[in-house]
Amino acid sequence: MKRIILALIAIICVNVIFAQDFVKDGLSYSIDDINNVYTRIVDTNIADLNIPAKVDYNDKTYNVIDISDIGRITSLKNLKTVNISDGIKSISFSSFMGCINLTSISIPNSVTHIGIDAFKYCSSLTSINIPSNMSSISGYAFYDCSNLSSFNIPHTVEYIGTQAFHNTAFFNNKDNWTDNVLYKDGCLLSADTLISGEYSIKNGTRLIAAHAFLDCKNLTSVVIPNTVCNINHSAFEYCENLHSVDISNSIEHIGGLAFRGCSSLSSINIPQSIKTIKYSTFEGCSSLRSIHIPNSITHIEDEAFNSCTNLSNFTIPTSVEHIGKNAFSSTAFYYDKSNWNGDVLYKDNCLIEVNNKIKGKYTIINGTRLISQGAFMSCTNLVSISIPNSITTIESNTFKYCYKLSKVNIPNSVVRVEREAFYNCSNLKSIDIPNGVKYIGEGAFSYCSSLTTVYLPNSIDTIGNNAFSECKKLKNITLNDNIKYIGEGAFTCCLKLTSIVIPNSIKTIEYGTFRFCKNLTSITIPNSIDTIKDAAFLDCNNLSSITIPNSVKYIGNSVFLNCSNLSSITIPQGIEVLPIGIFANCINLKSVTLPNSIKDIEEYAFNYCSSLSSIELPNNIKYIKTGTFTGCSKLTTITIPKNVIKIGDMAFHNCPNLITITCLAQEPPTLDGKDIFPLPNDITLLVPKGSLYNYINSDWNNYFNGRIKEME
Known about the structure:
By secondary structure, the protein is mainly beta. The protein is flat, with a radius of gyration of 31 Å.
């Protein structure tokens, strides 16, 4: 039975790590770890809905920023009107999908984003005013709103997703179409696939929506006026006969996949106004033989020119700082063996691609200034790599899955090691990160399971999420005082790590930073720390003591869950909430000092603290919640403060040695649930003078019949 309960507690604690939920006035609210609130509806019969921008909970006021999947949870067939208060920023994925009787919605100027499927199938909606600060309307946002005939698209909108207004009354009204193309407020929304030959987009158009010309197989050429600023993703995807596109210098953004599969496109000018060639923009443009990449371009993303099988002539300008994975794969340049240096493809001092059969040692050519993302990924026989001092960034996934890589020379020129750069380099035993490196990205050395020692220079200021997670042999790492941020899970599952000193430049211990560091016995938390987030030390089995400085004002859920050797702890003054599962299954915890500032002790806080024999609860708490002291088998006495008004399900369940409970509340607190106290029991309940009658005639008597006494 105990194992089942502990398993349930673990599941509950993991689920609440990211959010705390409560219900108020028919709406469910979720609080994230930075106190932002997301809301959804739970009252399925509601007809008129007001969504507030602020909500009070546990004596605090929270800002509501997002509306989430209201309609997706259930069919809200009675919902007719919605008023969204000013301050809410986003209407998210599927928020009102399927609200078939919704006729009116008021959206404030604070909302800047409408998510995918947000109003899909709202068939009674006839008009909507989209506020003037809107920046994006996602795919299918108003799809199949079959009576929607009146709406506006503000000039601030930069993105309209796939079929956002498809099958609305406006869309289905042929009078709104001009030469097989649908426009609205300077936005080109859609083109009929029957469109053919040459087409000139109307002057004054500022945006071409996602998938606007998708599969227009008979379209041969397009002239885009200089009023257009944004071509959204997939706008001309699979226009197989499109051979010419005239793009003006007014274009500021061309979305990913914009011209993918335009197999007849033989030339295109990329204007100087463009800074990034997005993912798969020209993928499969097999008629392209040459392309001019202007010196305004700083980023060429994944698959940008992949499968441009005739592309042989291009120059990568020195302005380019990043080349994504497979950006030039399967081009004519790629297939020309004369362009390769052994197993490595270079172009204009950029390392573009590597044959993953490369083995042994390899030295990157001097003067190489850039290594493309994932270049050496899955080169499973690469043993050693030497990087020249012309490289400033080791890109994401560069050496990912190089299982035999055991030696890396990182030059002093490098300033950034990006996301998962050395992920799962399981034979890498040590790494010398030179002075000059400022940034270690997310998962950069994650799953480097042989890594034992890491030297971090004084130049480091950022360690990303999971940067060293699953480095199970990592014993030694020194954190310098210049580090400003250590990310979530940065040292998760570093099983050999025994001690760590957090530098005084850090203000927050992030979610799960030292989770599953099972041999961590010593940790120094400086006075600079004001926040310890969820699961920070979860499952640190050998952590026996820890000092939390007075500077800490917030502690998250499950911070010390399963710290089975933790024996004593003092919570500093200023902490107001003892969160869910904070000490659950700390089986050796004997001494806990709680400050008077504590106003709330959440569920399962001391669940199965089987060595805890006594605890003094703060005077200000009002609730003893579900499972708070379940399984505290050595607990012999407890005093319930006078302000407590409710005790939750299984609060003192399985406390077999509990002898005396003193309840200082004059009115019996509500017993809200089952198995709150052990049954059967011979516990004596002591209550204030003059309150005996009240307790005998309450649910308390079901547990303490004949053993309720007034205090002297």
